[in-house]
Amino acid sequence: MAALLLLPLLLLLSSTPLQAQEDIMLGSSLTPQGPNSFWLSPSGDFAFGFRPVIEGNTSYYLLAVWFNKTTDKTVAWYAKTADPDPDPEVVQVSHGARLQLNSKGALSLQDSTGTEVWKSKVQGAAYAAMLDTGNFVLVAADGSTLWGTFDTPTDTILLTQVLTPGMTLRSRIIPTDYSNGRFLLDMESEYVALYLVAVPSGYREDYYWYILGNITKLVFDAAGRVYTAMGNGTNITMTSGVPGSMAEYYHRATLDTDGVFRQYVYLKDSGQWSPPAWATVGFQPPDICQATLSLGSGACGFNSYCKFDGAINQTSCFCPPQYSFIDEDRQYKGCKPNFQPQSCDMGEASAMMQFDLTWENHVDWPLADYETYQPITENQCRNLCLKDCFCAATVYQEATSTCWKKKFPLSNGRMRYDVDRKFLLKLPKSNSSQIDLPKENNRSQTELGISGGKWKKEKTYWILGSSMLSGTSVLVNILLILVLVFSTYRTVTRNEVHVQPLQSSFNNLGLPLKAFVYAELEEATNGFEEVTGTGASGIVYKGQLQDEVRTCIAVKKLDKIQKETEKEFTVEVQAIGQTNHKNLVRLLGFCSEGTERLLVYEFMTNGSLSRFLSGDVRLKWNIRVQLALGIAKGLQYLHEECSTQIIHCDIKPQNILLDDNFTAKISDFGLAKLLRTNQTQTITGIRGTRGYVAPEWFKSSAITAKVDVYSFGVILLELICCRRNVEMEAAEEDRKVLTYWANNCYRYGRVDLLVESDDEAISRLEKVERFVAVALWCLQEDPAIRPTMLKVTQMLDGASAIPTPPDSSSFVRPFP
Fold it and tell me: What is the mean pLDDT of residues 334-355?
């Protein structure tokens, strides 16, 4: 019993940081092995010194800063080769290395041969210190900091750390290899952006997440919030942190190996019965598989497809059946076929006998196609691929009767349960007709908790056998039960912290929409006082909910809705609420009370695109380019990636809203069906707005998604030229209607006239001409000639060639 009573005291003594010290004097040194391998902060929370590159393997060491009291001794900083190296590499040394704070007041790292392999950027320090913030610093005699590890971040930032223009974060290649990885966070005065980087060249693909504007710094503040500080005094939040006492948690924000910037917390005192772990409390981008659409391989490697599950905050890469990872530990290298692909020397009849197409729903490879067919049946699509020796797979969309043929290497593969497409893979003939999830690459759907496309929470059960209870004393049984109950309670509590990101209720995408009562919205809008917009379907009011985060909302009162039951309205609105895309305004809830029908949206701080197309305010060229791409991707999602296709029918600048990052978000989608507008050939049945309406509205033609393509073409020209389509006050007659003037300028090779007062655009005339050509394709009078929004996105991105757009008056074939 005495030993048991002494145990807590012994544990406390054993955890006391014996090496903790505030000042590290000149001449002090460290070696990878032995008693002096690291220096501790005063609290013992952080350490600076030598850490094995791989835990338990003493062949190579990092010079690093790490969390000293976490289970895994998480590394927060590691030394890289010094400037002027444009792409510094991690420094690794063997057991004979030595780090010294030399007589010149500088840190110097020598390898086992005595060669200096790393040194601090400055010298002249009077002493050094490992601070409790996680910053290891060199300090001058007057107490000022000359240099710190916070000045040269690697893949992680800590509480109170600040990034200034010119600083970067670079992910590791894999968790156990600290070499430069495939993702980069770049902090500049005009933007903060995440890039996909080609390894080992360092070439940057287009950024996949960004904040634009006059940016002064990126801050991880003491309250646990990561944000960018703007020149106008406002802050834009990247991750919102965790509520509660900051002293209870360790904190870090890391650009992880899968390209996701995540903020983590670690509960310091998790208790004896629950092993502690890092829990995610925020991340960007929302879906890495969707975000990294690029000319490269995408988030996963070539011939591999990606799935990101926000519920468990996990990115998974998969190989298709009969494919395997080239390197299981480095899955970014992609997958290889485990069979001999079809030879072009093989005749069509032999190919049909030896190969077949197996299928999987919800998988897409958006940028690997080389031929597209529409309209076409699935069987025709299959046969075309089987007869083509270049075809490795096809993707078929039943809703649009479209077939995309794919060839090696397949790129940007992704799995999402809202992808309404069938992936057909060419494999040697077997008895299987449906693709199973690869067993060696990931757990089964049952093991992962997938049921009907939704994730189930795991439960913990304790089962006490009767023989165990009867074979021991009553006192022991009572103690055992108490231990198990306490363990179960702590385990469940800890799992909730680990799995559930701490976010506001309106951040849980995919959950049913909130049904507001009218009085609640009346109070939130102060009696519907502040009007922020009006349109054909109703008036929009600004409001603020009385929730814990004071959510800003936009409330749209529908005043032209058809008379219908409350149930019908609710069903339609819930269908709209199932859409989820970064370029769509998020619907938070609705109200259906008596004759009142209201929709509640997230509030967009920068208003509509309309106010930036006239007057003295002109958006920078690169922002306009990103707006055009964002609108195109939002429409592509509505047309081709929703479970049910949505045709907007009223695409115009007033319905393109901008958030605080100047991300374009389409609003009012789904209202065409909700309002039950009569889509006949009468003038009163026309949906849309003057200047943006497609010609087929005035003809005896079916209304298809191509009406949105036409409207997008008008907006694209408006973004290029920073003006409205129709300006009757224009001095020159031929410039009054932008679509006509742009067509004339393009035909005569003078697109420079469209941007003649815009120096940024003038310096990028090749891209201007490309965008004008895309717009003219969208504006073709015959809807069959216009491209799909997928093709539009590919042309804007530069992933697809752009043929010369024809005169709409001549007969041409549909867009290839």
Answer: 89
Tokens representing residue 788 in the block: 């799909």
**Distance between terminal CA atoms of the chain?**
84
DSSP characters over 373-401 = ESS--HHHHHHHHHT-TT--EEEEETTTT
Domain range 14-151, CATH class: mainly beta
By CB neighbour count within 10 A (0-12 exposed, 13-18 middle, 19+ buried), where does 776 fall? Answer: buried
Which region among 24-28, 233-237, 257-261 has the lowest average model confidence (pLDDT)?
A: 233-237
Measure the CA–CA gap between 611 and 681, rounded to whole angstroms. 32
Torsion of CA 431, 435, 441, 444, to 10 degrees: -100
Strands 587-593 and 514-515 turn out to be parallel
Nearest CA among 508, 582, 503 for reference residue 291: 582
pLDDT of residue 816 exceeding 50: no
* Mean pLDDT confidence for 107-134: 94
Chain centroid offset of residue 289 CA: 7
- Enumerate the domain spans of the chain: 14-151, 291-439, 466-499, 507-602, 609-797
3-state secondary structure 449-497: CEECCEECCCCCCCCCCHHHHHCCCHHHHHHHHHHHHHHHHHHHHHHHH
**SS3 state at 357:** strand
Position 168 scores a pLDDT of 94
Return the closest-CA partner of residue 332 out of 314, 315, 312.
315
Distance CA 685, CA 706 (A): 17
Distances (CA, A) of 24 to 49, 107, 142, 155: 12, 11, 15, 26
When mean pLDDT is compared over 131-135, 248-252, 536-540, the highest value belongs to 131-135
What is the pLDDT, as a whole number, of residue 567? 62
| Alpha helices, DSSP H, located in 647-695 | 671-674
Q: pLDDT band at 793, cuts 50/70/90?
A: very high
Give percent of the chain above pLDDT 90.
44
pLDDT tens, residue by residue, 713-749: 999 999 999 999 988 777 787 888 999 999 999 998 9
Residue 662 C-beta-side C-alpha neighbours within 13 Å: 22
Helices (H) and strands (E) in the chain, counts: 16, 46
pTM of the entire predicted model: 0.55
Please provide residue 162's backbone torsions phi and psi, each rounded to the nearest 5 degrees: -125, 135
Structure tokens at 717: 């020209």
Q: 507-602 maps to which CATH number?
A: 3.30.200.20
Given the structure tokens 């890391």, which residue do they identify?
A: 254
Between 295 and 527, where is the model more confident? 527
Does 650 participate in catalysis according to the annotation? yes
Helices (H), 229-306: 288-291
Question: Which CATH class name applies to 609-797?
Answer: mainly alpha
Q: Which of 287, 369, 420, 650 is catalytic?
A: 650
Strands 413-415 and 305-309, how do they pair? parallel
Each residue's pLDDT tens digit, 474-519: 444 444 444 433 443 333 333 333 322 323 333 333 345 788 999 9
Architecture of domain 291-439: 3-Layer(bba) Sandwich (3.50)
| Domain 507-602 in the same topology as domain 14-151 | no
